[in-house]
Amino acid sequence: MTSRLALLAAFLLLAGSAQAQINPFNGHKGAPRLADSDVTLLDQTGQKLLGDTKPAKGASETWQNDATGAAGTVAYVGPTTRKVGTTKYACRRLRYEVTVKDSKTTRTARAAWCQQPDGTWQIN
Asked: Which domain holds residue 39?
């Protein structure tokens, strides 16, 4: 449970809806510095995969912010489930890869998004 809490603490979740902006790299030492506009593009790209009713394993979407030089890919890793109390949630694992301007290093983070009863997705 502690590792799950640590993972959740590493994510920046600004709202509980599908419009939530996340930065899976927030809080990681040496993590890429993402501008707000980068985080918005990262989130919108992930939401495309969450909005697909049956994404193919390995399906991916790319994004690029010409204003900041940051770019990345969000890929669907596969389905999973999470149980919270007596409720079992259908979830999707996404992998985020980001490269910032003037960096030769690509950073990677993973997140499990679980669909809520109202149809929205939340990191779990």
From this structure: 2-123
Which amino acid is residue 104, in one-letter code? Answer: K
pTM: 0.74
Q: Mention every residue, 6+ apart, whose C-beta is less than 8 A from residue 68.
A: 35, 37, 38, 100, 101
pLDDT, greater one: 22 or 67:
67
User: Tell me: the pLDDT tens digits for 37-79?
Assistant: 998 999 999 999 999 999 999 999 999 999 999 999 999 999 9
Q: How many CB atoms lie within 10 A of CB 60?
A: 16
Give ∠ CA 84-56-114 in degrees, rounded to 5: 15
Q: How many domains does one find in the chain?
A: 1
